[in-house]
Amino acid sequence: MTDLTRSRIIFIDQLHEAFLSNKGHGAFAYMNIIDALLIFEDYLDSGEPIESFCRRLARAA
Q1: CA–CA distance, 1 with 43 (Å, rounded to integer)
Q2: How far apart are CA 12 and CA 53, in angstroms?
Q3: Chain-centroid distance, C-alpha 1
Q4: Predicted confidence band of residue 61 (pLDDT cuts 50, 70, 90)
Q5: Runs of H (alpha helix) within 1-61
Q6: Residues 8 and 18: beta-carbon distance below 8 Å
Q7: Neighbouring C-beta atoms of residue 29, cutoff 10 Å
Q8: Model-level pTM?
Q9: Which end of the chain is more exposed for a tag (fewer CB within 10 A), N or C?
């Protein structure tokens, strides 16, 4: 498994947890996997810590 693949898996898990905590439903109740992968690219470009990026996204949804 590449580092990029591992990072994607960790990101999707964190995103799911942030939505679950903030909204009561996982991330995929609000988006599809294509959207999540595009958001992953935004996360990589942001330089923001993963936890704060995912929490901010979940609050904004």
Answers
A1: 20
A2: 12
A3: 19
A4: confident
A5: 3-23, 33-46, 50-60
A6: no
A7: 12
A8: 0.90
A9: N
